[in-house]
Design a protein that fits this description.
Radius of gyration of chain B: 16 Å
Strand order of the largest sheet of chain A: 2-1-3-4-6-5
Oligomer: heterodimer
Number of helices of chain B: 9
Shape of chain A: globular
CATH class of chain B: Alpha Beta
Order of helices and strands of chain B: HHEHEHEHHEEEHEHEH
Helix content of chain A: 40-55%
Strand content of chain B: 15-25%
Largest sheet of chain A: 6 strands, parallel
CATH architecture of chain A: 3-Layer(aba) Sandwich
Helix content of chain B: 25-40%
CATH superfamily of chain B: Thiamin diphosphate (ThDP)-binding fold, Pyr/PP domains
Structural class of chain A: alpha/beta
Order of helices and strands of chain A: HHHEHEHEHHEHEHEH
Number of helices of chain A: 10
Largest interface: A-B, 31 and 36 residues
């Protein structure tokens, strides 16, 4: 059955495109909680490499007149972008999947050495119930890499922790300033299964 | 003076031509920063930092002692946050190549106040003058144009540079220039502060009145 999944060809891409209506209402709630924090801090630049777990938040930010969505080609661009934003007196946030944390390692030096505020919201793969073993190495390394780079790391493993955790991280980031990442667990997002 | 061993190692790259380019980096950057007004300047890792500091250690320079590949996109974040100010990124070809995807990110956002100048000596100057991809057929302005920049051009002579200067200051962005400069060792000379917090705080204080 598993071997046949990829062999079936059309099956996986079709299910990847599954619309947002398939998500459970609870997932919308935690997106609301994050969005409210970004509003509280007047976040203006929303840099992202997309992940399915961030898709609703990206949609919400896209609908906000005073938020600029900045799609990136690689996550490290977001570290540099938000440094420039802060030099110009705007706050920002970086949305990425855990695999993207690995792309950021050297650029995190910029935020650390200059003490730029950096708020990263990381949707986890390879962490909890992952079906794709290729996601597991970077997923398991994500908190270690961030801690090694002196980021504050906050894990959220239940939707009702989201609002208070993102608010706590944002306060330390923007009032510190500090670099912090909130790791949004697969138990919150739902482990991706491509419909299986 | 062709070195056949190096030629073989570097494939199609040309190790000779940049030694004869007429423009010199220090003179180019001095002209870029003359009468700079309230322009905000980002200097990419390596020689562009020394070039900019040789003109003046200005608080509205943000020199990068690291973050290779980040200069252009840092300029994007700054340009979007300060749409009323001209933002000029001065960087090198090696630094630009490490963040080439950033040109496409800029091409999506299209900030009208952002100009990027690559001082292109076709070398990694800080590490022993090894050849970069621009020593081959790579056409950086063509990349910028394809990415959606409002204008992008290459500059190879003094006359072309003099003609380009007003546009580098004023043309609607995002605008991109590759200025071919002679491959030469100009040394380091004056250095800006190394402390990142100092650089950040003095920039914000000069721009915003508060760090």
């Amino acid at each position: 059955m598993r071997a046949g999944k990829w062999g079936a060809g059309a099956m996986a891409p079709v299910q990847l495109m599954e619309p947002m209506e398939a998500m459970e209402p609870m997932e919308i709630d935690w997106t609301d909680a994050i969005f409210a924090v970004l509003r509280d801090w007047q976040v203006r630049q929303v840099a992202y490499v997309p992940d399915a777990g961030h898709s609703e938040l990206i949609r919400r930010c896209d609908g906000a007149d005073d938020m600029r969505l900045v799609p990136l080609t690689t996550e490290e661009e977001g570290i540099a972008l938000l440094a420039g934003a802060w030099l110009g007196d705007q706050r920002g946030v970086l949305l990425m999947q855990s695999s993207g944390v690995g792309n950021c390692i050297n650029m995190l030096s910029l935020a650390r050495v200059c003490r730029f505020p950096l708020l990263s919201l990381v949707t986890m793969r390879g962490q909890w119930g992952e079906f794709n073993p290729w996601q597991v190495p970077m997923g398991q390394l994500t908190p270690k890499v961030l801690e090694a780079a002196d980021n504050l790391v906050f894990a959220v493993d239940a939707p009702d922790q989201m609002g208070q955790t993102v608010a706590a991280a944002a306060r330390m980031v923007f009032e510190g300033p500090a670099q912090a990442a909130v790791l949004i667990g697969q138990s919150v997002i739902g482990a991706k299964s491509f419909g299986k | 003076m062709a070195d056949t061993t190096d030629d073989a190692m570097n494939g199609t790259l040309d190790r000779n031509r940049a030694a004869a380019y007429p423009l010199h980096r220090r003179e180019v950057v001095a002209a870029l920063l003359a009468d700079r007004g309230d322009m905000l300047v980002v200097a990419g890792l390596g020689a562009p930092v020394w070039d900019c500091t040789a003109v003046a250690d200005h608080p509205l320079n943000f020199p990068l002692w690291g973050a290779m590949g980040g200069a252009a996109v840092l300029g994007l974040g700054l340009a979007m946050a300060q749409p009323g100010r001209r933002v000029l990124v001065i960087t090198g070809d090696g630094e630009m190549l490490m963040g080439l995807g950033g040109l496409t990110t800029i091409g999506v956002q299209k900030p009208e106040n952002l100009a990027i100048v690559v001082c292109d000596n076709e070398r990694y100057g800080e590490t022993g003058m090894q050849l970069t991809h621009t020593a081959g057929s790579l056409d950086l302005p063509a990349v910028a144009r394809a990415a959606g920049f409002a204008s992008a051009a290459g500059v190879r002579s003094d006359n072309e540079f003099k003609a380009a200067l007003p546009a580098i200051r004023q043309a609607q962005g995002p605008a991109f220039w590759s200025i071919k400069i002679r491959a030469e060792d100009t040394g380091i000379g004056a250095m800006p502060p190394k402390d990142g917090v100092t650089l950040k705080d003095r920039f914000r204080a000069a721009l915003l009145g508060t760090a």
